[in-house]
Amino acid sequence: MKWSVVLFCVIIWNALFGAAVGDIYPLTVEGVGTVTVPADIVTISVSVESSNENITQAQDEVGEEMNRVISALKKAGVKDEEILPGQGSGISSFQSSSKVCKTVNNTTVCENVTESASTLQRSTVIRLQAKDESRIDKVLNAARSAGANAYVAGYYLKDSSDARAEARKKALADARKNAAAIAADAGGSLGKAMDIFAYPDLGIDYSYGGGSGEGRMMDVNSRVMVTYEFIL
């Protein structure tokens, strides 16, 4: 694993100025830890759309369509608590321009033609257990059969506290290992930790692994900076 080290105020006094043996100086190093755990939550995005130019009618259409899709999902076993509250809406526009030419009385006449279209979309999110792959497929199929666009939006951890604690332990161990190596190279020894700083949450990275929900792995990261006693 690549790691970076920041060394502050470490001066080899016994080599340069003949300092007494046993002098203590601060040695600050960085440590990084990563824990890989299986995802336990999957989110599915479900959306419907209307190309009706009348915005009021388009809103009514996507509302009715979404109600039909939600009904179909519930028949497929989706529970109310698995449907995240609130629905998102948005309008996407498309415009294209082209040149059309025709011959009139042996004269070529060209004109620019512009075509545009707008689509109103409404979407909602379904949250399921990531390990139940057959149920995920069933929900996707039910949504698509009801006329909706549906796809897996992402995998997550419902509670990452244990994984974060384990990653932090690894980061602290990594910091001590790095510090011990520097102290030995400098001809001294490593004492106790004087100060510890934990960086803000580094986030959780998604690692692809296998083709099923159980194969979706998450990398939980931790990064710390520790100041130790450096003894000469």
What is the fold's blueprint, element by element?
Blueprint (H helix, E strand, L loop, with lengths): L12 H4 L7 E15 L2 E10 L4 H21 L12 E17 L2 E23 L3 H13 L3 E8 L4 H25 L3 E10 L5 E4 L9 E15 L1
Antiparallel strand pairs: 1-8, 2-4, 2-5, 3-4, 6-8, 7-8
Instruction: Give a quick account of the main beta sheet: strands, pairing sense, barrel closure.
Output: 4 strands, antiparallel
Q: List how many beta strands DSSP finds.
A: 8
With helices defined by DSSP (H or I, 4 residues minimum), what is the helix count? 4
Alpha-beta content class: alpha+beta
Shape field: elongated
Assembly context of the chains: single chain
Which whole number gives the mean pLDDT? Answer: 81
N-to-C SSE string, H for helix and E for strand: HEEHEEHEHEEE
Proportion of beta-strand residues: 35-45%
* Low-pLDDT residue intervals, each spanning 5 or more residues: 1-19, 208-213
What would you report as the Rg, rounded to the nearest angstrom?
30 Å
Binned, the helix content reads 25-40%
Distance between the termini: 28 Å
Descriptive notes:
By secondary structure, the protein is of the alpha+beta class. The protein is built from 4 helices and 8 strands; from the N terminus they run H-E-E-H-E-E-H-E-H-E-E-E. Strands 1, 6, 7 and 8 form a 4-stranded antiparallel β-sheet that branches. Strand 3 and strand 4 (107-129) form a beta hairpin. The radius of gyration is 30 Å and the shape is elongated.
